[in-house]
Amino acid sequence: MPFSLPTQHAPFDRLACHGLAILYLVLTVFPVALPWRASLSDILLPFMAVALLWRYRRLADMKALLTGPLRWLFAFLALGLICTLLHGSPFVGEIYEWSVFVYMAVLFLFYRQLQWNERHLAWGGLVLLAMVMAAFVYAMAAPALHLPPAFCFTSPQMETTSMSLLQRRFAFTMGNPNLFGVFYPLPFAMMTPFVFGHDWRRHPLSRRLLLLPAMGAALLPLASSASKHGLLTLAILLSWLASLLSLPKTLARLLRTAPLLAIAAVFEITVLFVTFPLKREAPYLNTDCGMYRLHQSTYVRMLKATSTAWFWGMGVHAAETAYPAHVQQDVVKGTLEQYNAMASYTDFITFMDPHNEFLNQLVLFGLPAALLLLLFWLSLPNASPHPAAMACFVIALLCCCLWDDILSKRVIWVTAALLCPSRQSPS
Question: What pLDDT, on a 0 to 100 scale, did the predictor assign at position 75?
Answer without folding.
Answer: 97
